[in-house]
């Protein structure tokens, strides 16, 4: 019970801070959504402390937006990921309803929002940055991650895939669909499966993925640290999240 209370209290504190921040930047929609979550969390806290079911009338479930579903998926994965993997994770672990096509313009919408009201949201869905400090095609990250995790070097795609595989193997889905997703990932990791068609052993997948991470991890960490240092020195706030404009991007903008 004490662990549950601690979790609720941290969540309540975070929601209150989010409400205050949203009100400061006059983001009414975000403030209203966070207040609704705050009321629900406070009722749960009251019920847990009193040992009685909450007497408050339950609110209808809040619609989880595409943006929030992507955020959930990326948080579970913990590394830059392709939209199709984010969609699969959202579906398997959170009952998500998003489709890959819905993510096409999402990063551009996030960038427009940031430029119109910098840091006005608790988080942004942004691009991974290449060695040219431009946005990596089709790789989503979270603004709350450190810069070293949002840049990608030569070995980063493999390291991130292995990191995501460990994350998927570490979680269970209520209906067993995580096994199918994990099997698809495990087939690309040497030693992660026993060659049968059955569900892979999550512990075996984790062990195999971490073994390969030990081979590539140090080099990738150095590459990313160098890229992050360059990005911090050369880019402004918006470009650190969404990438520096490339020549092709500038030509497209001028052609409009």
UniProtKB/TrEMBL annotation:
Protein name as it appears in the record: Uncharacterized protein
Species assigned in the record: Nonomuraea angiospora
């Amino acid at each position: 019970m004490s662990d549950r209370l601690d979790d609720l209290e941290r969540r309540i504190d975070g929601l209150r801070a989010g409400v205050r921040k949203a009100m400061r930047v006059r983001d009414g929609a975000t403030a209203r959504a966070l207040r609704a979550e705050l009321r629900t969390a406070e009722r749960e806290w009251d019920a847990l402390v009193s040992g009685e079911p909450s007497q408050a009338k339950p609110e209808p479930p809040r619609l989880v937006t595409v943006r929030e579903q992507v955020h959930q998926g990326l948080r579970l994965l913990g590394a830059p990921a392709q939209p199709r993997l984010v969609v699969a994770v959202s579906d398997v672990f959170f009952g998500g309803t998003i489709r890959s096509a819905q993510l096409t313009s999402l990063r551009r919408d996030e960038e427009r929002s940031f430029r119109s009201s910098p840091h006005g949201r608790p988080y942004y869905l942004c691009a991974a940055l290449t060695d040219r400090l431009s946005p990596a095609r089709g790789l989503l990250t979270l603004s709350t991650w450190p810069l070293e995790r949002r840049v990608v070097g030569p070995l980063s795609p493999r390291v991130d895939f292995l990191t995501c595989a460990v994350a998927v193997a570490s979680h269970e889905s209520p209906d067993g669909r995580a096994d199918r997703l994990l099997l698809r990932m495990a087939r690309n990791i040497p030693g992660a499966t026993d060659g049968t068609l059955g569900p892979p052993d999550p512990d075996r997948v984790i062990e195999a993925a971490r073994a390969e991470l030990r081979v590539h991890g140090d080099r990738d960490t150095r590459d990313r640290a160098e890229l992050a240092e360059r990005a911090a020195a050369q880019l402004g706030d918006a470009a650190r999240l969404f990438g520096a404009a490339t020549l092709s991007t500038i030509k497209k903008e001028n052609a409009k």
